[in-house]
Amino acid sequence: MNRAIVRRITPNIRTWRSTLKTFCSDTSEKLHGSHGDKAVTDSTDNVPQYDVAIVGGGMVGMAFACSLASMPLTKHLNVAIIDSNPALLARDNIKKEDAPDPRVSTVTPATISFFKGMGAWQYVQLHRHAFFDRMQVWDYTGLGYTRYSARDVDKAVLGCVVENKVLQRSLLSCMEDSDVKKKIYPSRLNSMTLHKSSLLSGTDSISSEPSGSLAKLNLSDGDCLYAKLVVGADGSKSHVRKLAGISTTGWKYPQNAIICTVEHTEDNRCAWQRFLRTGPIALLPMGDNYSNIVWTMDPQQAADRRSMTEADFLKAVNDALDDGHGPRPQSERIGDGGILAWLRSDETSSASEHFEVPPRITKLASDRMVFPLSLMHANNYVSKRVVLIGDAAHTVHPLAGQGVNLGFGDANSLSRVIAEGVAVGSDIGEMTLLKRYESERKAANIAMMAILDGFQRAYSIDFGPLNVLRAAAFHGVNYISPLKKNIISYASGEQRLPLFT
Q1: Could you give the angle at the alpha carbon of 116 between the alpha carbons of 80 and 261, nearest 5°?
Q2: Series of mean pLDDT values for 10-residue runs along the chain (501 residues)
Q3: Quick check: pTM over 0.70?
Q4: DSSP readout, 119-153?
Q5: Is 155 helix (H, G, I), strand (E, B) or coil?
Q6: Which residue from 250, 218, 256, 228 is spatially nearest to 237, judged by alpha carbons?
Q7: Short-list 43, 24, 424, CA closest to 204
Q8: CB neighbours (10 Å) of residue 367?
């Protein structure tokens, strides 16, 4: 892993493994407002109190809410969701004949298991989605390529491409069908303060700091509420993060990405990624002869390609995937003999597969969208009664489609930590408890960020000797079975670095 990159991402990384304090079970520390159908109200100013207030009702925020609702120890918690997006209150159904949306996510097997565990995957299956069991990666020089297969690690699939609107609607359906006590506030967060509380119900009380404070949230429509824990799931420009005073480290890439949906005449069950001089282009299967394009390039090129006619754009896409920028790789050049021949006896099944040409694009099936790329990492994930998840805590290069999966990993981890706290009667907004989540997720997220940033930088340089080294690396991965299997497992969501382990 590139140590320089890690130092840039986290200038003040604390020791990941810290001694955890024992949580004490005491009647004065038990959760309040967790009984009945309505939130408990403050006896002095009649402001509703919730156990958890989630600011941001996007995919990661809703996944966290669904995860809480699915676990016996947390399904009784009162949850407020604050988001001004009117789609949260809409009941519009997604029709299969609707045009595919260019905004998609590539969810890993770990994310699929997370969705299945909380009961949300059954709703995804009602809509368009596409599993893929193969992946091919190569570059414009024609010197090397690597093929991955789910069979290499005895899995059925490597991932699934799902439209974001399908994931969002599925999570909403899961939440609606749950018994969790929740309320959606169609508003925006204006301010947030720690409020020292007295009696919050007729029988229970909260003592002195830290248990004696709640977060008070003031909303743009004039409403306000109290919460034991505020979860910032409000994206890369997180207002929660700003109000909590949490600083960030990061930089902007000199690149934009074009995303769109395209159509081809043949079925696609493979994820394709080709590295060009200006950045990678990915072709991801969406089902029904549709695929999604994620194409990275400098901002001026992105603007030019966005304004092209459809015919010119399709030609540019087909050139980027096969026709132009360099020759097709030949499997005989490296790896069939010589220095890597001794590895043939232990090679994965995909190592013997020849290079395949991606399907030819015939139609543009959506608008072209352009967005800038950046890397951002919050220096802390937690503050007093505040915790960050998803893009509020980190953003990454879309190189391997890992961004939203990191966010779902955050949601899964935080819900489990809260359940463990509830089990021992801990205050769910206590820093000691929340630090367990931070310790687990910070290490995992930084490792992935460093790997993706390292790949982006390595392929942003067009230099002859380096090109040869990259080609050798492609072939090395293709034929070194332990390394290849570890890369697939790591990309699938397992918490194991892609090394010889």
Answers
A1: 90
A2: 43 35 30 36 69 97 97 96 87 78 94 96 94 91 85 90 95 91 94 68 34 85 96 97 96 93 92 90 93 95 96 96 80 48 55 83 96 94 96 86 90 97 95 96 90 73 64 67 77 62 40
A3: yes
A4: T-HHHHTTS-EEEE-EEEEEETTSS-EEEEEGGGG
A5: coil
A6: 250
A7: 43
A8: 12
